[in-house]
Structure prediction request, 574 residues.
Amino acid sequence: MCFIAIVIDARYENVNVKSDWWETALFYQIYPRSFVDSDGDGIGDINGIISRLDYLKELGVDATWLSPIFKSPMYDFGYDISDYYTIQPEYGSLEDFEQLIKKANELNIKIILDIVPNHTSNESEWFLKSSNKEEYYNNWYIWENAHIDNYGRRKPPNNWVSVFRKSAWSYMPSRDQYYLHQFSESEPDLNYRNPVVAEEMKNIIKYWLEKGVAGIRLGSINYLYETDKDVFGGHFPDEPLTGKSGLGPDDYDYLDHMYTKDQEETYDIVSQFREVFDSITLRDNFTRVMMTVANTGIKNAVRYYGDSIHSGVHIPVNNALINEITKESDARDIKYVIDRWLSYKPLGKHANWVTGNHDTSRVASRFRPELVDAFNMLVLLLPGIAFTYMGEEIGMVNGFVPWVETKDPLACNTDDPVNFIEVSRDPVRTPFQWSNGKNAGFSTADKTWLPVADGYESLNLATQRSTVRSHYQVYRTLTNLRKRHAFRLGRYESLALNNEVFAFKRWYNDDTYIIVMNVGKSYQVVNLTAFDLIFGQLEVEVSSVLSSRTYSENVLANFLDLSADEALVLRMQI
Ligand SMILES: *[C@@H]1O[C@H](CO)[C@@H](O)[C@H](O)[C@H]1NC(C)=O
Ligand SMILES: *[C@@H]1O[C@H](CO)[C@@H](O)[C@H](O)[C@H]1NC(C)=O
Ligand SMILES: CC(=O)N[C@H]1CO[C@H](CO)[C@@H](O)[C@@H]1O
Ligand SMILES: [Ca+2]
Ligand SMILES: [Ca+2]
Prediction:
């Protein structure tokens, strides 16, 4: 539902602006398995989340999205759903979930669910019935006959490779056919060319929206369709090779995925799903937010905002800071990647920023622990919507999970006890570090599902809460600052002041801020008067943990020296 922004008074203190709840919201991602374990079985759960809602409130988050909590055999830790209408028993019951919504509502925190539309679990009833060719379910998945080679041997139908490596096809004896799985073998792709499947997914979305969730995240949306095989005489064609060096036929990047990603039909099904959100939004006069994730080129990515033909989604998750900013990136790269999203995004739509999730090396490990505050400043103070993956507010680092304890199917698929570490997602899923107590305060169990990361004795919430200067304190100050008009509604301008120093300006009427971050490893001196109307002195609002500067100290606009990794939020003196 659209609300029109009405600016009544020019002075920022008195401005009365209506914007819908999600347009500048802060979304906090909880990976439920690793957040809080309430019953001592070593696995996080819903009652655990309920017990820490006050923490989310204190942090200043508006909404939390939960990685999947539905029934699952957990080969891919919940992204392989076997029953979309049931909560995974080890996480709790439907009553527990209803309690979560109720308690969250009391604190005005919104709950968002993560529903996986591309595939089910291989142990879902739908798949088992389809495997047995039960009439109604026969056509719910992508079944293909084997390719019989010159020696009469049974081979997969074509060369398609799964995102998790190796053939995207697995053989099912009961049908004497192969099924397609773009991800793990335990995640057979649904067949969206069967209208019944699309209808069922709409029912699932409706079911959870009716339960009171404020929105739903639909991941891997650009994998929903494969090419139409009827166009190719009834056979799915091979994908062409990318020619990238150092790769073999088991590697995902070996092929150019022109037939298995970003198909035109995706945008139509997205607008059909959107109608479900809109009908409930309209009825209740409360916007239910649709988020999608598509790791794809920028032009495809922004198509999810919608166009004149298709209504799009509220939040097409922008993974650019995850996928394109690396240890090697400098200030110019950061500016470029941010500008690109803002340039391609349709005018009047809302940007969003993400630096972490349950699949991505943590900021402290991907870059340096010293840059944690700088990246939190980026995410929280850039224009639009912000996402934080749990633990980034205290600068958690990747844990160490040895081969024998490795759980992630992506890592197990490497069959490589040495190099698995390069792809394993377990290190970013280790338990939240609440305190220096047993299992970092996550659980009373003797063994937790993944080991707690080393160093939790000093890196934990309790310690950071009781310290004056900590990532947590910086984060809280930023979430408060974020409520000001300059950040919620203000304009944006950015500069790479030199190769190492990225800075941006946010302003609303006469309230003006400069956020400046030295992402390099050496001392730098910059001149902020390169920004229009920045001069004289600025006051420090927030400084990174290792900065020598403190709140309300003044700095000179035309001569600002920054130590390596130093990041500041400065306010222009009026
Ligand atoms: C589902 O897939 C997993 C992982 O590949 C496998 O271990 C399991 O046996 C499969 N289940 C069925 C019912 O085929
Ligand atoms: C809908 O909700 C908005 C914001 O909560 C409120 O301002 C508006 O008056 C409501 N409209 C109707 C028709 O109830
Ligand atoms: C970011 C995200 O949602 N990643 C998930 C995408 O889907 C695969 C397959 O289900 C999961 O393994 C990822 O965790
Ligand atoms: Ca538990
Ligand atoms: Ca698919």
